[in-house]
Every structure is written in structure tokens, then in C-alpha cells.
Specification:
Elements (H helix, E strand, L loop, with lengths): L6 E7 L5 H10 L4 E4 L5 E3 L4 E8 L4 E6 L27 E6 L4 H10 L2 E2 L20 E2 L2 E2 L4 E8 L4 E6 H4 L16 E12 L8 H9 L7 H15 L8 E4 L4 E3 L1 H9 L4 E4 L2 E4 L1 H7 L6 E2 L2 E3 L6 E4 L5 H19 L8 E3 L7
Parallel strand pairs: 1-4, 2-4, 3-20
Antiparallel strand pairs: 5-6, 6-12, 7-12, 8-9, 10-11, 10-12, 13-19, 14-16, 15-16, 17-18, 18-19
């Protein structure tokens, strides 16, 4: 959002053995630690951060193995020469290991180019791979929990390297232990994904189905679904490198089944997905009259009202006032409290 003050210290990690030194430095000087990825989903406060920000600069997609090999030869390095998306090969799941500092969209591009399905719906989400499991990123009917097998981490409480499984992370909608019960405890070194040769199952997410119908698309390979999603996102979501934005600023509203039925009776568009019933918060914001509005220097995106763009705000307070006005009016009109999605770097609530 191009807001916030400076950090007292920034420590960039280029290899795992440097991680204990970073935490040791913070402990020596009794300073709080904040692990920062690409910053796409993070907001700073004006006073800055009186601690140590640790940034993951470890890159690479490695240890590619075919998990479905039944020849008795065990896992093999296979992706360098095969594309499994065109029916040319018969194979089981493919497992890839990605360093936490790798840009997330590079991972989606790599998988799609090899004909592997499971994360093509997450294409063009900004940020780093290590941040993907933190808030269980999701889009277009897919979430990272669907494919993530395990993560390698540094545990700052026990000063040890560990591996956490999918089950350990306790994923739910935009949540894991990494941003709730174990917030600030783990530094994500790498993530391991298990992907499937083939295609995303239909029916697709509504906006993909609409695009497919309008453009008479018959190619549903991971590479083409990625292309479609890239075009859809580009048409309504500004590039954060060009316009100051944190992407979707509010989480969608999830409802119990009775509340969902009540919402339907009121004419609200209720979507049923694997996480239950939900209402798109962008629709609520638009219906509350904020579409395209400028509030305290913050613009509500004309094409996707979930997106807030910093056009002329100069302080965190400007953003907070715009956010709170939107939340209050949506609640007054619909009775739903919007929850902010981006995390904030503050000097409070950090374990030293």
C-alpha cells in the first residue's frame, strides 16, 4: 500500500544456516521479529517497526519426483523431459519442493508448463512461496491446502529445524497455525506440493466458466487455464507493482446453512464451495455504494470492489479511516462485519 515507516533492522536470509543467526541477533538485543515475504499482503504503520524484519531470499524449485512410479525404481527426477497434461504419459502424482523465497507465480508457471494441475487457479497471486501456507491462499476454487504436503521450517521457540505436515498446519479459510496459534513462531524454509497430471475438474469457478463460454474454449490444460485466469485477473485487479494495492482487502463472508438460506431469501448472491456458504465481500461493498469511490486518498477499485488502491493517502491513518467507513456502512446495510485480509506490522503483540 506504499504506507508505513522504516524497520530498525532488516535481515535477509539466503541459506537456511543463516536463520538461527537472525533470531539470535534479535534475542540478544531483545527485539521483536517479523517475517516478511514479498510484502503484497502486508501493511506498515507510520511509526515503523522497532525490531528485526527477516526476509526470505532463498530461491529454487527442486527435488522433483514422480510419486506414482510402480516400477519398483522409486521416485525419479522426471519433469525435465515430460509434459503430463496432454495425455502423452500415464503417471501418478508429482511432488515438487519450492524454496520459500521463490516468487509464487513462478511456481504456478512451472507447474502449468509441465501439465500439472492443482495450483493453476492460484496464478498471478503476488508474493512468495513461503507465504502461501501462512494464510492458505486460494482463488478460483483452489487453495494451497489442496496440494501442500509439508513445509520445512525453523522453529524460533525451540531453535530447531522441523518439518510440519498439512495436518499440523490446521488449514481453514485464509488461516493456518502460522497466522493464528503459532503466529511469528516459524520461518518457512521450503514447501512441498503434490500435483496431479491432467486438468482442473469441471464445473469451473463461475468467472472461468463464463470466460470459457464467451470465448468457446476447449483447451482446459493447466497452461491454458492459467492463461485464462491471468487474463481475468488483469482485467479487474491492478498490478501492485504499478498501483499501490494489497490485493483483496477483505475476506469473504462465510455463513451457516440457515443464515445462507436467509441471505438467499433476501436476494443476496450466495456461493456454495468446499468451505461452505459465502457471500463475496466485493458485492457487499459495491451494493453499499462504494464502487469507484475515493475515501481519504484510498480508491475502491471500479472493477473489483474488494480491491483498495492507494492513490493519494500519505499515512496509515488515512487507510484506517477508509477501511472503517466501508466496514461500518456494510454492517449498517447488511448486518455483516467485514474482516481485513492483509496483516499489519506493528510494535505490539510480538514475542521478544
Amino acid at each position: 500500500m506504499r504506507l508505513g515507516g522504516p524497520a530498525r533492522y532488516v535481515y535477509e536470509i539466503e541459506k537456511p544456516e543463516e536463520i538461527p543467526d537472525a533470531y539470535g541477533f534479535a534475542k540478544t538485543y531483545n527485539l521483536p521479529v517479523f517475517v516478511l515475504g514479498g510484502g503484497a499482503n502486508t501493511i506498515g504503520h507510520d511509526e515503523g517497526f522497532n525490531g528485526v524484519i527477516i526476509i526470505n531470499r532463498m530461491r529454487g524449485i527442486t527435488d522433483v519426483t514422480w510419486m506414482g512410479d510402480d516400477s519398483g525404481r522409486g521416485p525419479q527426477n522426471v519433469l525435465q523431459s515430460k509434459n503430463f497434461g496432454e495425455g502423452k504419459e500415464s503417471a501418478g502424482p508429482i511432488q515438487i519442493k519450492v524454496m520459500g523465497g521463490e516468487p509464487w507465480d513462478n511456481v504456478c508457471e512451472y507447474a502449468a508448463s509441465k501439465g500439472l494441475s492443482g495450483i493453476e487457479g492460484l496464478s498471478k497471486i503476488p508474493g512468495l512461496a513461503g507465504a502461501a501456507p501462512v494464510q492458505n491462499i486460494g482463488a478460483y476454487g483452489q487453495e494451497i491446502t489442496d496440494t501442500l504436503t509439508e513445509i520445512d521450517v525453523y522453529d524460533s521457540e525451540t531453535n530447531s529445524f522441523r518439518t510440519l505436515s498439512n495436518e499440523d498446519l490446521q488449514f481453514s479459510y485464509r488461516k493456518s497455525i502460522l497466522n493464528t496459534t503459532a503466529k511469528n513462531r516459524y520461518f518457512v524454509i521450503s514447501i512441498t506440493l503434490t500435483l496431479q497430471p491432467g486438468q482442473m475438474p469441471r464445473p469451473f469457478y463461475d468467472s472461468i466458466e463464463k470466460y470459457v463460454s464467451e470465448h468457446n474454449v476447449t483447451d482446459f490444460s493447466p497452461a491454458n487455464i492459467r492463461k485464462i485466469i491471468s487474463e481475468i485477473r488483469a482485467s479487474k485487479i491492478p498490478d501492485p507493482r504499478e498501483k499501490a494495492s494489497a490485493g483483496s482487502f477483505f475476506k469473504n463472508i462465510y455463513l451457516s446453512e440457515p443464515d445462507a438460506e436467509t441471505a438467499k431469501e433476501k436476494g443476496y448472491p450466495v456461493y456454495k464451495g468446499k468451505n461452505g456458504y459465502s457471500i463475496n465481500s466485493g458485492w457487499l461493498i459495491e451494493q453499499a455504494g462504494f464502487k469507484g469511490e475515493l475515501l481519504h486518498g484510498i480508491r475502491v477499485n471500479e472493477k473489483a470492489s474488494l480491491i483498495l488502491i492507494n492513490e493519494s493517502a500519505t499515512s496509515y491513518n488515512d487507510l484506517a479511516k477508509a477501511r472503517d467507513e466501508i466496514i461500518a456502512k456494510v454492517y449498517d446495510k447488511f448486518g455483516y462485519w467485514l474482516e481485513q485480509e492483509p496483516v499489519e506490522i506493528t510494535n505490539e503483540n510480538f514475542k521478544r
